[in-house]
Amino acid sequence: xxxxxxxxxxxxxxxxxxxxxxxxxxxxxxxxxxxxxxxxxxxxxxxxxxxxxxxxxxxxxxxx
Length: 64
Known about the structure:
The chain has about 60 residues and is mostly helical. The chain has one domain. About 70% of the residues lie in helices and about 0% in strands. It contains three helices and no strands. The longest helix has 18 residues, at about 15-30. The N and C termini lie far apart (about 35 Å).
């Protein structure tokens, strides 16, 4: 297996990304493990910055 430090998300569909974010949020809220919420927030913050939009607008875009 090749070693790698980063994973590209350019092939992840909008639907799949929304599902990943929702799953992280749901898991964090239902297990009280803050790491899941922190990871969701970090991913959302980075993606919205790349899209040059707010986090709320980015989530709305994924939900369309």
